[in-house]
Write a structure and sequence with these properties.
single chain; alpha+beta; four-stranded antiparallel beta sheet; two-stranded antiparallel sheet; 6 strands; 30% helix; elongated
Length: 224
């Protein structure tokens, strides 16, 4: 009995030591990012990851994460419209870009094509060595911040919602779609890139009711 009790006591003591050793790791704050160690705090606007890298202010990895995460946030939250005209009622002529829902959209089917306001860039905010966030930029719209230190490009399909002309009431475009508008100036937008990432081929070729891929900006001929 004495030997068995001693063995149990030693086992309990070893478990206690193991738990005690783990406590500092559980309560310590996350380690800082070496990539941000020499970066000044502040908010910086860019048109793309390439523009971000060329500025020399942030590491390429963070610029890449920021671009992908901002694009996902924009895709998830930006309003969508079934027709260009309805979108331009809210965002002006030339203020909307073309989007596709999966393969049907790329095949030129009209019910899989939508229009949304153009993303005008992204803003990266460095708060400390442990925190950097990014938001997409679009006039009249606010978005939630996502981390710029890791990939966070998930899109919740329940958040996307198509709008119609019935949604267009008074007030700011943002207020019409359940998105809060900024309280004040959002700062200067970055200059447009040499090649517009939101190039809207539908400005020249609109999909038809028949869903002809050759008029829906398809890159390959359809099978007939």
């Amino acid at each position: 009995m004495i030997c068995k009790y001693s063995a149990l006591t030693r086992k309990s003591s070893s478990r206690l030591v193991s738990m005690t050793a783990l406590l500092p790791a559980l309560i310590m704050p996350p380690a800082f990012s070496p990539a941000l160690a020499d970066v000044s705090k502040g908010s910086f606007t860019y048109s793309s990851a390439r523009n971000c890298v060329s500025s020399g202010r942030l590491p390429a990895e963070i610029c890449g994460f920021a671009e992908k995460n901002a694009a996902a946030e924009f895709e998830e939250k930006a309003p969508r419209f079934p027709q260009r005209g309805v979108c331009e009622q809210a965002y002006g002529v030339g203020g909307c870009s073309l989007g596709f829902r999966g393969a049907d959209g790329w095949a030129g089917k009209k019910n899989a094509v939508y229009f949304s306001p153009r993303q005008q860039g992204l803003r990266i905010t460095v708060k400390s060595e442990r925190e950097a966030t990014v938001v997409p930029l679009a006039t009249g719209l606010n978005f939630s911040a996502r981390s710029a230190l890791r990939k966070d490009a998930s899109i919740n399909p329940r958040m996307t919602r198509e709008r119609t002309s019935a949604d267009l009431h008074g007030g700011s475009p943002a207020a019409s779609f359940g998105v809060s508008a900024p309280d004040g100036p959002i700062g200067p937008l970055p200059p447009p890139p040499p090649v517009d990432p939101n190039f809207d081929c539908a400005a020249f070729l609109e999909p038809t009711d028949k869903g002809d891929p050759n008029t829906g900006c398809a890159v390959v001929r359809s099978r007939r």
